[in-house]
Amino acid sequence: MSETKADQAKVYQQDTKLTHTGNHPDAYHGFVNPPVVHASTVLYPDYDTMKNRKQKYTYGTRGTPTTDALCEVIDEMEGSAGTVLVPSGLAAITIPLLAFVKSGDHILVLDSCYGPTREFCDDVLVRMGVDVEYYDPLIGAGIAELLKDNTSVVFTESPGSNTFEVQDIPAICKAAHERNAIVMIDNTWATPLYFKSLDYGVDISIHALTKYPAGHSDLVLGSVSANERCWKQLHRHHGIMGCCASPDDTYLTLRGIRSMGVRIREHEKNAIEMAKWLEDHPAIASVLHPALPSHPQHEIWKRDFKGSTGLFGFTLKTDDMEKAARFYDALELIGRGYSWAGYESLAVLVNLSDRKIAKGTGDGILVRLNVGLEDPADLKADITQALRAGGFTN
Ligand SMILES: *Cc1c(COP(=O)(O)O)cnc(C)c1O
Question: Which amino acid residue places its CA nearest to atom 8 of ligand 1?
C-alpha cells in the first residue's frame, strides 16, 4: 500500500513539523505561505449550501485559511483534536473557563496562577456564582481531597507564574478525571515544544501566543487546544463568544512559529548560563529555575518536560524594597517591562501579595528575569553594575 502524505507526516521530527505544517502551496498557486485573509462576508453558491453550512468557510469570525494554517501547526505540536485562536493570552484563559464552568460549580485554581487569571476568577466567576478555591501548586495527588461532586475544572499552570513550582500534572489529571472534572493548563512557559500536556492527561491546553510563538514583542494573541472529549464544546463556545483573532496578528504568529525551535533553544541556553551565574553570586539568595538541580521539583521537570525556556526567578539578598528598587532602576540593557519571550531581556520586581499559599522562597526580594537573545556577557555586566548601584556589592 502506498503511503499517503498524512502517513509520511507522522514520521517527521518535531522541528520539521514546526517548519512545514499548515502550508498548502498547491492551494495558493505555489506560494509557500498562506494568504492573510481579511474577511467578514463569505459568499455561498445557493440557499441549500447557506442553510446547511455545506462549505468550509462561513463567516469571518468562524475561521479563515490564515487562522486554519496556524491552528494546524498548534494541533500538530499539541496532539489536540482542535484549536481556537483568541485575541490575547488572557482571553485564552477566560474563554475556556466560560465555556466549561457554570453557576453553582466549584473550581480549583493553582495559587501561583498568572495574576490576571486570579482577577478574572475572583471577579467574573465569583459574580456568576462559582465557588473558586485556590490550591497549593505542589499538591499533586493530594488534590483528590479538594475535589467535590460539583468540581468542574482544575486549572493548572506549570511552572507557576513568578514562583516557578513544577506541578505533578499526571497525578492531578488522574485525581480530577476520577471525579469527572476536566483539567486545563496554562502551558505558555514550556510551549508545546517542551511540554506535551495532552499526552500527560490534560484536557485543554492554553497558550499566550504573544510569547515564544510570536516572539517579537509586537502583538498579543492566544490559543486554546482541546482533546476529543472537550473539543466540541470549546469550538461551539468560541463561535458563540465572537472572540476571534485578527488576520494580521495570526499571520505574524505563523511567521514567528516557524523559527520558534531555534529561538527557544538559544533562549534556553542563555537562561541556563544566567541562572548558574546568578546561583553562584554572593548578592543572590536563591535562583528559581526548573532546569537547575537545586530546584525543588527538578526531578518532576526532568520526567515531564523536554527542555526549559528563558524565564526564571532569582531573589536579591535583602528585605529592603527601596534597595531592590535601586538595583532595578539601575538596569540599563535589561528593560523594565511586562510580558516576556521576546528577543530582548526584561526584568520585573515581583509582587506576591495576592498569594494565599505559594509565597515563594521566603528569603529576599524576587526578580523575574526574561532572558532574551543578547550575548549573556552583556547581561551579566548589566546586572553586575546594577547590583553595585543598588549597594549589594562594592
Ligand atoms: C503573558 C501571559 C499570559 C497572557 O498573555 P497576553 O497575551 O499578554 O494576554 C497568560 N499566561 C501566562 C503564563 C503569561 O505569561
Answer: 89
The residue nearest atom 3 of ligand 1, judged by CA position, is: 89
What is the average pLDDT score of the chain? Answer: 96
Which of 210, 243, 340 gets mutated to test ligand 1 (max ligand atoms within 8 A of its CB)? 210
d(CA 318, CA 322): 10
Domains and CATH numbers, the chain: 3-257 (3.40.640.10), 261-389 (3.90.1150.10)
Q: Does the CA dihedral 17-77-233-97 come out positive or negative?
A: negative
Specify which residues 182 forms β-bridges with: 153
Question: For residue 161, which atom of ligand 1 is closest to its CA?
Answer: 13
- Omega of the bond prior to 159 within 30 degrees of 0, cis? yes
Please, are residues 324 and 351 in contact by the beta-carbon 8 Å criterion?
no
Per-residue pLDDT tens over the stretch 268-301:
999 999 999 999 999 999 999 999 999 999 999 9
| Helix-helix angle 260-279:376-389, to 10 degrees | 40
% of the chain beyond a pLDDT of 70: 97
In angstroms, rounded to a whole number, what is the distance separating the alpha carbons of residues 239 and 229? 18
Q: What is the pLDDT of residues 320-362, one digit of tens each?
A: 999 999 999 999 999 999 999 999 999 999 989 889 998 887 7
